[in-house]
Amino acid sequence: MYYIAISLLTVLLVPGPTNSLLLQSGISRGLNAHSFRLIAAEWLAYMIQITLWGVFIDRLAVDYSWVVTGTKIFAVCFLFYISLKLWFSTRGNASSVVAAITVPELFLATLTNPKGLFFVSFVAPTGTFLALNSYVPFMSLFSIVIFPVGLVWVATGAYCGRKLHSSITGRMVNRTISVVIGLFASVMLFNVASKVVFA
C-alpha cells in the first residue's frame, strides 16, 4: 500500500490539465471556499473516470493480456497530445491573463484528464476493479491523497498570485506545465518500452 500511496501522490503532483486549472484558480481567486468546491469536483470526476477505465481494462485484460501494455502506450500518447495542446493553446497571445475557473469547467477537464487512465494502467494492481475488497481500499487511498494535493496546487497559485501576479500570464503557466508533462510522458514511455523490450 505504501508503494501505491507514493505512486498516487507522484502522479497527482505532476502538472496536468486539472492541476493547471487549480493553479490558475489560486492565482485569480486565492485559497477560499470556492477552492474546496473545485477539489471536490476533481475528486468526483476522477472517481467516475478511474472506475469506468478500471472495470473496462481489467475485464478485457482477463482474456487479452496485451490490453494492459496497450493502454499504457495510449495514456502516454495522450499525455504528449495534452502537452502540445497546452504549448500552443495561447500562441500569439503572450499577454493573456489568468482567468477564473468554474466548477463545471474543472469537472469536465478532469473527466477527460489522461491521468485517470494512468492511475488504472500504471498504479492500480491488475484486477483491482474486479472485486470490492481490492477496489474499495484503492479508491479510499486515492480519496485520502487527492484532497491535500489539490490544496497544494491552489495554495501555490494563491502564493504566486500575491507575489508574482503582474508577471504571470496564461501563456507562461500553460507552457511551463506543457514542458513538465512532456518530460513526465517521456519517462513513462521509456518505462513501458523497457518492459516490452526486456520482457
UniProtKB/TrEMBL annotation:
Domain of life: Bacteria
Keyword Nuclease: no
Keyword vocabulary terms for this entry: Cell membrane, Membrane, Transmembrane, Transmembrane helix
TM segment ranges: 36-57, 64-84, 90-109, 141-160, 172-193
Primary location group: membrane
Topology in membrane: Multi-pass membrane protein
Subcellular location: Cell membrane
Keyword Aminoacyl-tRNA synthetase attached: no
Cellular component per GO, a single term: plasma membrane
Any one Gene Ontology molecular-function term assigned to this protein's record: amino acid transmembrane transporter activity
Biological process (GO), any one: cysteine export across plasma membrane
PANTHER family noted in UniProt: ARGININE EXPORTER PROTEIN ARGO, ARGININE EXPORTER PROTEIN ARGO-RELATED
Protein name per Swiss-Prot or TrEMBL: Threonine transporter RhtB
Species whose genome carries this gene: Pseudomonas frederiksbergensis
Lineage, broadest ranks: Bacteria, Pseudomonadati, Pseudomonadota, Gammaproteobacteria, Pseudomonadales
